[in-house]
Amino acid sequence: MDSLPSKDINSFKEKILSEFECQKSGHCCKRPGYVLVTQKEIKKMADYVDSTVVDFEFQNVVIDNGWKAVATPQFRQDCFLNEKGQCNIYPVRPIAC
Questions:
Q1: Is residue 48 over pLDDT 80?
Q2: Which one of 62, 75, 81, 85 counts the least CB within 10 Å of its CB?
Q3: Are 94 and 28 contacting, i.e. CB atoms less than 8 angstroms apart?
Q4: Residue 82: exposed, middle, or buried by beta-carbon count in 10 A (0-12, 13-18, 19+)?
Q5: What own/partner pairs with CB < 8 Å and gap ≥ 24 does 10-19 have?
Q6: How far apart are CA 72 and CA 47, in angstroms?
Q7: DSSP SS3 for 23
């Protein structure tokens, strides 16, 4: 996926994200792509890392064509992986993972 769809389909975002099922493989963190997030997920992640939502978004979220993402091909390509290849936020990872 080279770019995200336009804002015209933003109303489908929750449905699109709800179709993902975690395979617990870590591949979503190792391959180029988008990890889209909802505001509710951002709040959970911010709480988990003991951060405010504002600070968490500033450091970890990018908006691409109206979609919020914690990883894109150009932004945070390793998402939340640590040096062992494990997800640092696994208990509160986005549904897209």
A1: yes
A2: 85
A3: no
A4: exposed
A5: 10/66, 10/67, 13/38, 13/67, 14/38, 17/94, 17/95, 17/96, 18/95
A6: 22
A7: coil
Q: What's phi and psi for 90, nearest 5 deg?
A: -45, -45
Which amino acid, residue 80? F
Lowest model confidence (mean pLDDT) among 33-42, 50-59, 66-75? 66-75
Can you give the pLDDT at residue 82? 83
Angle at which helices 39-48 and 53-60 pack, to 10 degrees? 100
Q: What's the chain's length in residues?
A: 97
